[in-house]
Specification:
- The complex is a heterodimer.
- By secondary structure, chain A is of the alpha/beta class.
- Chain A has helices at 2-14, 25-37, 48-57, 74-84, 100-109, 121-136, 168-179, 187-195, 204-221; strands at 17-21, 41-45, 62-66, 68-69, 72-73, 90-95, 113-116, 142-145, 148-151, 156-159, 162-164, 184-185, 228-231, 235-238.
- Chain A has 2 domains: 2-136, Response regulator (Rossmann fold), CATH 3.40.50; 142-238, Orthogonal Bundle (Arc Repressor Mutant, subunit A).
- Chain A is 46% helix and 22% strand.
- In chain A, the strands form 4 sheets. Chain A has a 5-stranded parallel β-sheet with strand order 2-1-3-6-7, sandwiched between helices.
- In chain A, a hairpin with a 2-residue loop joins β4 and β5.
- The longest helix of chain A has 18 residues, at 204-221.
- Chain B is α+β, with helices and mostly antiparallel strands.
- Helix content of chain B is 55%, strand content 19%.
- Chain B has helices at residues 3-56, 122-154, 157-168, 185-235, 241-271, 283-293, 295-300, 318-334, 384-395, and strands at residues 66-71, 81-88, 93-106, 109-118, 279-282, 304-309, 313-316, 341-347, 350-356, 398-404, 407-413.
- The longest helix of chain B has 54 residues, at 3-56.
- The chains are: A alpha/beta, B alpha+beta.
């Protein structure tokens, strides 16, 4: 029965409709093809007017919004979204401006999250995933990957129905892997996901390595399979294929 | 030396020279006039005595004032006056006399008539004139100081206030430079020039700042395109190991570039005081939770963490405080040795992070400079401690760095 619930969840996510408002065609194209591979329906708007038109005509679950657009500020689109889109549609701002003021203003206007350019595409995927989960599940909120089960609300992890103790970073790391399963994840992306963007990162790749080593050991001790593959010269891939 | 002192010294020196010269001239003139006058009197008196002898035929002498004696032949005497010292039996003292001696023929007899008059000695003149001038000199001096004191209180007041304003003026501040008006032409001109200069500098500064900010922001978009494209390529199953390595190094470089960009922007923002939220925060709580974030990393190097965190209040922007603590702790881990130690101490008013390290710091003063790295080859940006320093500066906290043996100690006093 539990299994059935997750299948439904997966189907719901597949049906998610995303509008990407981004004026850089190259970037829009890469992001949109990545999101399509992840199973989302993704449409792109490359100008303020185009975004306005699309938002007024169609409903979206998640809107990825660049702030600096030809024809107007993305921040003023938030107002429009609040008026014409369903109440539960979510907004994620993607901006080249890493300013706390812009961030606070965006969040105050009603955006759900804020991502600074340049971003790791896996990070974007994680954020979208988190937003959708918050949107869908007010009560029970779980992610399963084979024998690994996350209870997101309680931040607890069970492997083969047995609870396992992880530190906060290890939990975040495993969740990042599972959310971006089958993808090659770079050490830079992982480090940034774990520590944010304000520390000088030099030795953080050793830090990442240390975390991964510990995580592997703990999962294996708890009886989980080692799904984590080191992809030589690139990073890591979490996969059961 | 103050301008006033300088003019004072010049004034005093020139007055002194003038007074000395004036005193000399006065002395010479006075002596001259007095002598002329006395000589005239002596001549008149001599004529009176000659007339007296002529009428009464009597010779009267009142030494040392008048001495008349009959002489045999008429030697020619010039009849000019001269100074001479003589003993005055009444005063019982040697006095200076002006003396006129001349031979006169009265009623066929030749008389030598000597008339004398006691006069002031030159050093008496000298003393009196000196005393008078000294008094004038002292009065002048006093008046100089009084005038200067008044002048510096009133006329220079606006100048000093403006100097203070200039010292406090910071280009990055939102406050424009305010200068006090003055009705003195020179000060007015100076104010106008400074104001113009400051306005121009502020304007240029803003233009430059805006340019570098925009440039940095503009750079982020192409960087994100490169990064996204490279990451997409990485996902492809057709790439060889070699290609993957190349892509990975390109990705690392892009990552570093964007980090550098972001960090420089952050530094600029800190310096521009764009973090204006100030809240009372318990620094110990923040440190505790950030140490937790780093727990695994500390463990990974088998570093021993000794902490003593007393509750301490600071007023700061919470975001900035977190950046500061994070940078200090990450620095202490990064440069530590395996099995090393980190000590974190918080007392009311001070926050200390010390760590063991085998790295030698050649110039501790440069520690907080931008792009200072322990190891030039490291991929570290060398900006972490500059950020810490920047935050301390705008919070007006005092940060010091010292090395004691293999201990590196950062102390912040707030």
């Amino acid at each position: 029965m539990l299994q059935n619930l997750y299948i439904t969840l997966a189907e719901v996510i597949i049906a998610m409709k995303i509008l990407l408002v981004e004026d850089e065609l190259d970037l829009a194209q890469s992001v949109s093809s990545y999101l399509k591979e992840e199973g989302y329906i993704c449409e792109t708007a490359t100008s303020f007017n185009m975004a306005e038109a699309k938002l007024s005509s169609f409903e979206y679950d998640v809107i990825l919004l660049d702030i600096t657009l030809p024809g107007g500020s993305g921040l003023s689109l938030i107002q429009l979204i609040k008026e014409v889109q369903p109440a539960d549609s979510r907004i994620l701002i993607i901006s080249a401006r890493n300013s706390l003021d812009d961030k606070l203003e965006g969040l105050n206007l009603g955006a759900d999250d804020y991502l600074t350019k340049p971003f790791h595409i896996a990070e974007l995927n994680s954020r979208i995933n988190a937003i959708i989960r918050r949107k869908l599940f007010d009560g029970k909120n779980e992610i399963r990957f084979n024998e690994i089960l996350f209870d997101l609300n309680a931040r607890r992890l069970t492997i083969a129905e047995k609870p396992i103790e992880l530190t906060r970073k290890e939990y975040d790391l495993l969740l990042y892997f599972v959310t971006n399963k089958n993808r090659v994840l770079t050490k830079e992306g992982i480090a940034e996901h774990l520590w944010g963007d304000h520390i000088d990162m030099a030795n953080n790749f050793d830090f990442v390595y240390t975390h991964i080593k510990n995580l592997r050991r703990k999962v294996e001790q708890a009886g989980g399979k080692d799904y984590l593959k080191t992809v030589y010269g690139m990073g890591y891939r979490f996969t059961d294929q | 030396m103050k301008l006033l002192h300088k003019t004072n010294i010049i004034n005093i020196a020139s007055t002194t020279i003038l007074l000395l010269f004036g005193g000399g001239v006065l002395y010479v003139l006075l002596m001259d006039t007095v002598r002329e006058e006395i000589d005239e009197k002596l001549a008149v008196n001599k004529d009176r005595i000659v007339a007296h002898i002529h009428t009464s035929n009597q010779v009267t002498s009142i030494p040392p004032i008048i001495e008349v004696k009959q002489v045999d032949k008429k030697t020619i005497l010039t009849g000019t006056a001269k100074d001479t010292f003589l003993f005055d039996p009444i005063e019982k003292d040697t006095e200076l006399f002006r003396e006129l001696t001349s031979n006169e023929t009265v009623n066929g007899k030749v008389y030598q008539v000597t008339i004398r008059q006691a006069i002031l000695e030159p050093h008496d003149y000298f003393n009196k004139i000196g005393a008078a001038l000294l008094l004038v000199w002292i009065l002048l001096l006093l008046s100089f100081f009084l005038i200067n004191w008044r002048v510096s209180k009133s006329i220079w007041k606006s100048f000093h206030n403006n100097l203070l304003n200039l010292k406090r003026f910071k280009i990055g501040d939102s406050q424009p430079l305010r200068l006090e008006n003055s009705n003195i032409k020179e000060f007015k001109e100076l104010n106008e020039t400074i104001k113009e200069l400051a306005d121009r500098v502020v304007k240029d500064y803003h233009v430059l700042k805006e340019f570098s900010e925009n440039a940095a922001h503009e750079m982020q978009t192409p960087l994100s395109i490169i990064q996204t494209k490279l990451e997409s390529t990485l996902q492809s199953s057709h790439i060889t190991e070699n290609m993957a390595k190349e892509i990975q190094s390109s990705l690392s470089a892009v990552h570093r570039l964007s980090k550098l960009n972001q960090t420089l922007l952050l530094l600029t923002k800190i310096e521009n005081r764009q973090f204006s939220r100030v809240e009372p925060l318990n620094i110990s709580k923040r440190v505790e939770s950030i140490l937790e974030e780093f727990a695994e990393l500390i463990e990974a190097k088998n570093i021993c963490l000794e902490k003593s965190l007393e509750p301490a209040k600071v007023s700061s922007d919470p975001h900035l405080l977190d950046i500061l603590i994070t940078n200090l702790i990450s620095n202490a881990i990064k440069h530590n040795t395996i099995n090393g130690t980190i000590r974190v101490n918080i007392k009311p008013g001070s926050f200390t992070v010390s760590n063991t390290s085998e790295e030698t710091i050649t110039i501790p003063e440069n520690m907080f400079n931008r792009f200072t790295k322990a190891n030039q080859a490291s991929s570290s940006l060398g900006l972490g401690l500059s950020i810490v320093k920047g935050i301390c500066e705008i919070q007006e906290w005092d940060i010091t760095y010292t090395v004691q043996g293999n201990w590196h100690i950062f102390v912040i006093n707030f």
